[in-house]
Amino acid sequence: MNLTLKIWRQNNAKEAGKMVDYKINNISPDMSFLEMLDVLNNELIEKGEDPVAFDHDCREGICGMCSLFINGEAHGPDRGVTTCQLHMRMFKDGDTIYIEPFRAKAFPVIKDLVVDRTAFDKIQHAGGFVSVNTSGNTQDANAIPIPKHDADRAFDAATCIGCGACVATCKNSSAMLFVSAKVSQFALLPQGKVEAADRVRNMVEEMDALGFGNCTNTGACEIECPKGISLENIARMNREYLKASIK
């Protein structure tokens, strides 16, 4: 395939960026989207030009690093995949592809297509964990009976990889799907109930302090989420927050 790429280039968060056009030829439909960008970068390096900076790590759809906004969609036109799992067969010969970073106040651009998602780490640090009793009387988690329905829902919430597609997709740059997934995976389990009230209050307050917007109730986050995190988690987080607020 021969393609035209319109890629956002920006040296850092303080400088203005712009879309730059690139022509790329002989792209196999079996390539992943990141492999296509690798080909482009090799060509740029051979010409002595600055390669396009983009984030990636495992390239197996697990780490959530490869977050790109492609043709107006987080992770591109496919569903249930991250950018590294997106294949060029989703495009046609002669297509023009727009490639941008995830845009949100809380995700400042580092360079080109790379954004700083430290905000998600700060939300996790605020309460996305279970404190461990190290008194010597710690109960083995496998010995605690948990209804299968609760365990399944907790596992579904825990599949969130923190890529930020929900934020990039939301008109308000809301992080509520991410935060609710992290709250839900503990709220559904007995190990997480001890700190439940402090957890949800601290995580929601940190989310607001970092500049994320409120939920739009449009459901775009669930559609674009590569792991299919359900909106039910947002409803659960709201219930948990309400309970914590009136205690």
Automatic annotation (TrEMBL):
Coiled-coil ranges per UniProt: none
Pfam family, one: Fer4_8
Cofactor: [2Fe-2S] cluster; [3Fe-4S] cluster
GO MF, any single term: 2 iron, 2 sulfur cluster binding
SUPFAM superfamilies per UniProt: 2Fe-2S ferredoxin-like, alpha-helical ferredoxin
4Fe-4S ferredoxin-type domain mapped to chain residues: 151-181
Any GO BP annotation: respiratory electron transport chain
Domain of life: Bacteria
Similarity comment text for this entry: Belongs to the succinate dehydrogenase/fumarate reductase iron-sulfur protein family.
Protein name as it appears in the record: Succinate dehydrogenase / fumarate reductase iron-sulfur subunit
Organism this protein belongs to: Myroides indicus
